[in-house]
Amino acid sequence: MRIGLLGTGNVARALAHGWHAAGHDVLLGSRRPKERTDLGLPVASLDETAAHADALVNATPGGVSVDLLHSIGAPALAGTLLIDVGVGLSDDFSALTHPNSSLGELIQEAFPLTPVVKTLCTMDSTTMTAPGELTEPGTVFLSGDDAEAKRTTGRLLTDLGWPESSQLDIGGITTARGQEHFAFLFMGIAGGVGSHTFNIKVVTRPSADAR
Asked: Is the pTM of this model over 0.85?
């Protein structure tokens, strides 16, 4: 697939390298592409990146993501899968910029013709692209209203090393709120274990058939 990643930070670069290694055609999007020629990956303008993409990834700071997407324009985004991995946090990381909603919901509301899938925002960039390097891969969550968009996202997650057994569809885009609000627990766990490279896993009681 042609994957466009909006942003050039750690998350965007990690995902771009991961999908490039899996054989996908990746392009990073920047507001100042001429200043980002040292990344070892192709970089273009935001508009060019959106036009390039079969699937677009929002890896921009969550507080500015909706405005940035508006600068590209709804017509350019219509019909394109948008995978949102952003979380909106204040500059001091003490508050969410969307405390009563989620970035995923706001993007879907602003761009109703663009299927939005929220995923990968409950972990750091290293874990996103190398889940197999942990003692076990744990769980990655998917939120979205479009079933086909979630299936495509699931295949792209598999290409990053996430087996289907680790992928958990938790429902519509409103459930993105839970993923994003996990940010504070993530920071607490990171302090407790002394690292940002970890993941969580959903465990359940065994079914009657498995006993």
From this structure: yes
- d(Cα 204, Cα 127) in Å, to the nearest integer? 22
Position 6 confidence tier, pLDDT thresholds 50, 70, 90:
very high
Q: Two tokens at 183?
A: 């940010």
The answer to whether the beta carbons of residues 156 and 19 sit under 8 Å apart is yes
Q: What is the Cα–Cα distance from 89 to 183, expressed in whole angstroms?
A: 9
Cβ proximity of 27 and 4 under 8 Å: yes
Identity at 115, one-letter amino acid code: P
The phi, psi pair for 171, rounded to 5°, reads: 125, -155
